[in-house]
Each structure stands twice: as structure tokens, then as C-alpha cells.
Amino acid sequence: MEKIRMVDLHGQYLRHKEEIDNAIQEVIDTTAFIKGPDVQHFQDELSTYMGTSHCIACGNGTDALQIAMMALDLQPGDEVITTPFTFIATIEVISLLKLKPVLVDVDPDTFNIDPAGLEQALSKKTKAVVPVHLFGQAADMNRILDFAKRNGLFVIEDNAQAIGADYRLSDGSTRKAGTLGTIGCTSFFPSKNLGAYGDGGALFTDDDRLSEKIGAMVNHGMKKKYHYEYVGVNSRLDTMQAAILRTKLRHLDEYNTARQKVAAAYDKAFAAINELQIPARNPDSEHIFHQYTLTVKKELRDQLKAHLQEQGVPSMIYYPVPLHLQKAYSDLGYREGDFPITESLCKKVLSLPVHTEMKDDQLEHIIASVDNFFKQ
């Protein structure tokens, strides 16, 4: 049996080696390393795939979130509602722009922000909501969009982990996660479902004016060479990464289906283990499993993780410390106990390998290793 990895990027590369090597070589041959034609082609192709009017590529997913807030003219002191159970980038950019993160606890089953807490978090200073589509499925966007519409708020989707997931709106129509709010943001970090071979990100919008503004802001605020209409940043997706991403985009649905197949096998194997809770599904959202995350009951998480390591099975804790208890954000004024569900999950969640190159013998070994732990 080959070594089990959380994400088998090398195996995925080998599967598409000729396509990717040719794409990289073409960029080298043309030497169009910055703003080469592959960047525009990728933006057009991803926009078509996502079913949105505009896709603007940028340097990484964190920049995408920051640029979205800059483009919406959020001002120091404005409040932005989001979740404490996510990667740090979500509140990092809010703080960097001197905005105020206002946190809302999550649903214990889906791990996504609980819309029931939005009204309590609302104030006269609230300007936006940032739902995070965690682990591969969308948050409860029907309720979030309704809340935002009633209160005149922007919705900035953090879609770094759910690119390609379909979502069913209240009117029965279906759209991709990341295209439901005012602006959607995503990351192409290598381990993502659509991953580059370095950093990368993108923003999505149906608003023509916002698209034009964002397109300038990612390039120093420049609409015309050496003419700067906005205060911007240097956050361009380089041509090499765009060429790689164009190749991988053609296989994204295939990648997501492969992840779902692994998740289905885990579900079947673990549903009857009382000490485990398998990932819940939002009935309105497809789950494309950026992570397959179990909730381990009875304070057994760390013991299970250690057992899996002994069996050659990697696992990860996303996330061990909630954002409101991080030292860097202590000035927000939150304390232990403020978000009990998030705090409980941080002590119980464990993510298992789920990727596109999983072999049957590897999957069987992972399942057997988990099963044997609970039979001891």
C-alpha cells in the first residue's frame, strides 16, 4: 500500500502530467509571466463554470477577501458579522482594514455560521456579513441572504473551501456557492479542490461596476497604465498559475465527485459508531468535501488521532483554537464561553484524508483503523 496522505498532490499531478507540463512550458516559451493571456482565459472559463458575470483573479484567497471589502468602501469602525470557526484569514482582513469583526456561533452539525444568531449581532454599524462555506458545503444562504436584504447589508462569501458546490435558492433555482452574495471570494491554495501550484485567488460578482473596480484594485488601482483611480494592491494571479488552473478546472467536477465517493464510503462505515458523528449535510447545498470532518464524542478525539498516526493514517484538526480565543485577537473583547458550540467543536473535530487519488486499499485501511479503535 502506498503511503497515505491528507492530500495527494503528486499523484494528481502525475495523472495530468502531460497537460500540465505543456501548459507550463507554453508560458515559459512566451515569457508572459505577468498578465499573460492564460490569466484572461482562466477568468473567462471560471466565470462560465461558476455561472457568474465576472471573475477577477488575484494573488491569494486572503487578498480576495480584503479586496472585496475595499471595493465595497467599508470604512474603519464598520462592523462585519462572521464566524469564529474558520481559518484566520476571514477575520484577519477585517482587522487589517480597521473594521470590527462581530462573531456568531456555528451550527453544531454543519459547522457553518448559525443564521439564528445574526439578529442579535446586528447593530447600526453593521455593513456586511461574511458566511464561510466550511469544509465543502455552503452555509444557510437562503436565511443569510434574506437577513442581509432586510437590513441593507453586503454579503461577502468566503468560498475558499466549496468551489464547485451547487446551492438551491428559495425560488428553486440553483447556483454555485460563491455566486450568491454581493461578492464571492475563493482561494487556489494547492490543497484546495481547485488548487494551484502556489498561491492564487479570485473574486466573483454579477455587478459590472464592482467588477471594473476590483479589476483595477488587484493591479495597484490602475484602470489605465500609470493612471490610478483607486487605492489598490499588488495582487495579480501570475500566468503560470493561471495556466495550471485552466488545466485543472477542466477536471474540477471529476475531482469533487472523487471526494464525494470517499466521503460516502466513510459515511457508510462510521454511521453506526456511536462515538462518532458523521458530517451533516445542508439540504440546500451540495457537499464537495474539501475536508471530511468527524465529530468525536466522549473526549476521545486526541486518542483517536494518536491511534491513527500509529497506523500510518494522517489526520488533522481544523481548527484547534477558535478565533475569538487567539492571542492576536484578544482586543476584540471575547472570552471563553462566548461561543460554546465553536469551543466544543475545537475539542472534538477530526478530519480524515479525502482526496482525488485515494486507492481502495488505502480507504479500506483508514476505515479499518478507525473501526478498530472503537472495538478496543
Can you describe this structure?
With 376 residues, this protein is an alpha/beta fold. The longest helix has 19 residues. α2 runs antiparallel to α9, α3 packs parallel to α9 and α10 runs parallel beside α13. Helices cover 38% and strands 14% of the residues. A seven-stranded mixed β-sheet has the order 1-9-8-5-4-2-3, sandwiched between helices. It contains 13 helices and 14 strands. The chain folds into two domains: 241 residues, Aspartate Aminotransferase, domain 2, CATH 3.40.640.10; 124 residues, Aspartate Aminotransferase, domain 1 (Alpha-Beta Complex). The chain is globular.
Beta content comes to 5-15%
**Count of alpha and pi helical runs:** 13
SSE string, helix = H, strand = E? HHHEHEHEHEHEEEEEHEEHHEEHHEH
What is the average per-residue confidence, as pLDDT, rounded to a whole number?
Answer: 97
Please tally the β strands and state the result.
14
Overall radius of gyration: 21 Å
Describe the sheet with the most strands: 7 strands, mixed
- Main-sheet strand order equals 1-9-8-5-4-2-3
Give the CATH superfamily of the largest domain.
Answer: Type I PLP-dependent aspartate aminotransferase-like (Major domain)
- Distance from N terminus to C terminus (CA atoms, Å) equals 24 Å
Q: What's the overall geometry?
A: globular
Tell me the helix content. 25-40%
CATH uppermost class of the largest domain: Alpha Beta
CATH-defined fold name of the largest domain: Aspartate Aminotransferase, domain 2
So, CATH architecture of the largest domain?
A: 3-Layer(aba) Sandwich
Structural class designation: alpha/beta
Give unreliable regions as ranges: none
The figure for the number of domains is 2
